Amino acid sequence: MRAAFAAGAVIDLREGPDEDVRAGGRWGEERTVPARLLRELLLGDAPGALRLAGARITGALDLGDGAVAHAVTFTGCHFEEPVVLRGASMRSTGLIGCLVPGLDGWLLKVDGNLFFENSVIDGRLTLTRAHVTGELRLSGARLTAREFLDGGRPAEGTDVWALWAGGMVLDGGFFARHGFVARGGLRLVGAQFNGGLFMERAVIDNPGREAFSGDDLSATTMVLADGFVARGAVRLPGASVRSLLSLDRAVLDGALHAGRLQAGDLRLTVAATPTGPVDLEEAQAAVLHDNEHSWPADTRLDGFTYTSIHRPSGESDPVGRRLAWLAALPGYAPQPYEQLAAWYRKIGHDDDARRVLLAKQRRRRRTLGPLGRAWGRLLDTTVGYGYRPWQAGVWLLVLTAAGTVLFRHGHPTPVQAGQAPFSSFVYTLDLLVPIGGFGQRTAWYWTDYHQWVGYALIATGWVLTTAVLAGVSRSLNRA
Description:
This protein is rod-shaped. The chain is built from ten helices and 37 strands. The longest helix is centred in the C-terminal third of the chain and has 30 residues, at 449-478. It folds into two domains: 67-365, 3 Solenoid (Pectate Lyase C-like); 371-478. The strands form four sheets. It has a 15-stranded parallel beta sheet that branches. Strands 11-14-18-22-25-28-26-23-19-15 form a ten-stranded parallel barrel. By secondary structure, it is α/β, with parallel strands linked by helices. The chain is 27% helix and 27% strand. Keywords: Membrane, Transmembrane, Transmembrane helix. The chain crosses the membrane at residues 452-472. This is Oxidoreductase. It comes from Kitasatospora terrestris.
């Protein structure tokens, strides 16, 4: 061991390439290395590098608060006790394909890479406030929180964490890709991923609890996609992802809490509708991608802003789908409607923007009292709340035609002799237009049922005019 360490050579004790490290407890003395020897070598001043494969490590490897100036690589090793790297300073370190009953790396500093690829970690992996200047690789690793070991079933409402890494700083990327499985949640509160976080086809199993806790984390890129599965809640409130945050083809068996999230390209094109609520209140995105599965019944979007919405090719009725999306939101909030309308105006679809704002007024009407609802229905019917002022013109044409036909039948009485000839068309217009006059209404009068029809047309004219003014005023105020 000492000679190989000094030479930086590999000590390979494996009997074959496919050994099961879980069976390492039965390996013989010829494959057994005491942890105290490794500690002596790693904390000593002699130059060298530790490259050990297929060994059974007995005793606790405790390098806490130590300065390790050597590269360290364990491959296919079986550790009988947890590894302690608390407060240690190390160069590139790898535990690849190993079995480790937990690792404490609180305040660990690694000048280089930290690899756990294809390892089995039975117990919590702690990297709280660790700083790694290179990459952290967990692809193919299997993490099991201690509460799940030996068939354990954690009590309802308890926190269960397989990875505890709040405040961790990675200058390189975080890779927990294909084959990564965690039984227990990943706690990454306030962590910094300067090289991005990539978890394609990873599985986190922590049902009824938090699967991914990333409150206030920051990352250049964050990819939880291509078969990523989270059984439990995914939390990203206050997180900042400067480039891409992708949940493309992900499965969320739980809630997505992402209030105050800031993301560049936000892809919510999940494989199936999340089973819990999706909360994006006060979140911000430059570009939003979604699909028919993105929005469950409990979706919260109040304060959510975006610069653009990606429109898939072949989308037949985008505004209709968007209105159905907003209509499904629980409760009434004006901001989601106004945000969507602002986007349509930005891309030059003013008609679609008016449809959205009209839908907003109709949704708001449900929250009003009886008088408010009645007045709202009148505005809707007459001028579409000001977003369809042409409806008032249609009503005027219909009433003018009806009045013209009605007043042709009968004989009005002139107010005085020598009046201009009676015109049913002009007389009807004179009744409907409350401002100004054509002289017919004051020159002729009726004494039968035509008189009551005239009163009705006068009242309708005032209502239409008031509705038009109110609607146009609302449109100008929203412009």
